[in-house]
Amino acid sequence: MFLKELSNNQKTVFWKLANKLVRADGSIDDSEVKMLEDFKTELSMDDLTIRDYQEDIETILREANYTDTQKRILMLELFGLAITDKCYDQSEKDMLIKIQTTIGIADEEMKIIEKYVDEVLDLYSRIGSFININ
């Protein structure tokens, strides 16, 4: 939703982290693949492929400097991806904490991000029910 606010380099970093995140729990769900495909479209970077990036999180994050706004965007989008399959695994939580710590997002901000993502997903669910799409 907000990925257009990132530079091309930051978009590539986001893509790598997103790919690592969907693999963190050992399996990739169809909803995660769909979300990655949606991200790819939003990023407007056709050369991206869904794959296993081997670099560690710190190495990937060294490739881009983020403003505070861009840090929030990164965490908001990644948290949404982590919970899209309705299974927020401890390995995904650990990875998000590592990213949060590495880029310097305060716990209070992360709680707000989680709250907003939960509210958006709840709204989408209610709208889907209203128009009978499940």
Brief characterization of the structure:
The chain is mainly alpha-helical and 134 residues long. It has helices at 8-23, 30-43, 57-61, 68-83, 90-103, 107-130.
List keywords for this structure.
134 residues; mainly alpha; TerB-like; 6 helices; globular
User: Could you tell me the strand content as a percent range?
Assistant: under 5%
**Which residue ranges are poorly predicted, with pLDDT under 50 across at least 5 consecutive positions?**
none
CATH architecture classification name: Orthogonal Bundle
Give a count of the beta strands, DSSP E runs of length 2 or more.
Answer: 0
Question: How many helices does DSSP assign?
Answer: 6
Give me the CATH superfamily. TerB-like
- Major β-sheet profile: none
Q: Provide the CATH topology.
A: TerB-like
Give the topology string: H per helix, E per strand.
HHHHHH
Rg computed from alpha carbons, rounded to a whole number of angstroms: 14 Å
CATH first level: Mainly Alpha
Can you walk through the features of this model?
By secondary structure, the chain is mainly α. It has a single domain, classed as TerB-like, CATH 1.10.3680. About 65% of the residues lie in helices and about 0% in strands. Helix 1 packs antiparallel against helix 2 (about 30-45), helix 4 runs antiparallel to helix 5 and helix 4 crosses helix 6 (about 105-130). The chain is globular. The two termini are about 20 Å apart. The model has no long low-confidence stretch (mean pLDDT about 90).
